[in-house]
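REQUEST FORM: STRUCTURE PREDICTION
Request ID: SP-0412
Submitted by: Lab K.M.
Chain count: 1
Length (residues): 512
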Amino acid sequence: MKNIQNLQLEDYFDILKRRILWILVPGVIIWFITFLFAQRLPNVYVSETLILVEPPKVPTDYVRPASVGTIQSRLSTITQQIMSRTRLEKIILDNNLYAEKRHSASMEEVVEKMRSDISLNVTKTDAFALSYRAYDPILAQKVTSQIASLYIEENLKVRSEQTEGVSEFLESQLKETESKLREQEDRMREFKSRFMGGLPEQQAANLATLNRLQLQLQASQESISRLQDQRAQQKRLMTEYESFAQLGLGVEVSVATSAVPSVADPASRELEKKKADRDAALLRYTKNHPDVRKLESEIRILEERISKQHQPVDTALTDGIEMDSAGQKMDPNLLEMRTQLQSLDFQIQQAKKDQDRIRNEMAIYQARVDSVPRLEQLQKEISRDYEMTQQNYRSLLAKKNEAAMAANLEKRQKGEQFRILDPASLPEKPSEPNRLRLNLAGLAAGLAFGLLLSLVLELRDESVRSEREVAQLTQLPVLVSIPLIGERQSKETSLFRSPFRVLSSLWRVSPK
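STATUS: Completed
RESULT:
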């Protein structure tokens, strides 16, 4: 086998001259086979349409759309639905696509073939191109138009379903929140009705009432002390008068009567005080307010008490009781003293009852004031939950209104839509196969095969063709070279010698 490492440039040219047929013949044969194969390939036509994504006709500042997201994400969702087997199988059967393949393959393989023939390319941020490959240009245009129509219809359907889904979800959430809000309103109403009068916002009024009752209690205690002093003085006068009467000393009636100080009626003063409190309360509240109604009740009780307070004295004076237990006439002065003493006892008794009533009311108001911290904490919890639910309800109501406007926008087709910008084209020439490229590829492959074959033949050829090869083989210098007679004719005949004969002769030569 020859060593090609020591070959020079003229050697390569010499090899090319000798093996030119071995290069050209395989190249032509392979090119011819490629040419025949390319001519037999069917023409493939591609129909393309451009679909524009129109923005909403109403600005999003006024009506916010329910469906959001990029075109790529929505196209991915729509493509998955359109590329489903059900949709594509219907198109295949309606247009009688892949008739030969349907006889030899399953429908799943046919649908997969159609998926590979459909191409989707987003050209811009607001447009995308849709194409379909087929052997018939008219059929390619028809199927492309059908698929484009499916994209437009599916987009409207998807946006409508999203809008309706958002509206239904918000409606259900709104009903739940409304029910929860009503429960918390009932809870708030029950809390206020249960602790009416002791609510934190009524603490100032309770403290004022407690101070007023404290003043009334102090005034009542002072009134009882004065009444007790008057009773003791009246009792002393009556005892002295009886002692003088038993001794037979004459006592002027004016002395006895003038000794009795005039008794100021505390119930009357309290009645006037209650009326003043009622008038002051009416300036702030209505007649149905609990504090006003309570003062009215207290005023009626005091009026009845005052009317009963003077009844024993009037009866004693009008009936003219002048007989004692022995059946003798009593001294009118002594009778008047006893009547006044009874009146003082009655006033003291009523004042003590008022004092007990004031203490009971003070205990009630004091309990209300003491319970304010606990009720305030409980009211804060109820109010916080109520305010949060109310805020959530208002937010859901606003979103529901926005969803309703978005749904109305979709129904009137004023939202974002797909519009065909360029209809499906009718291809005038096939896009595949590229026969020129195939022929050039076949010719290049044939020449490459010829070069490889020539190289193999040259490596298996043991002939010595130059003085330099002789010197390399013998390691001796060449002194004389004698050219062959008819060398030119020999070279010309060897150039056109059959490659097949040379190939067969080379196989018979055994390598060293």
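NOTES: The chain is about 70% helix and 5% strand.
Reviewed by: T.R.
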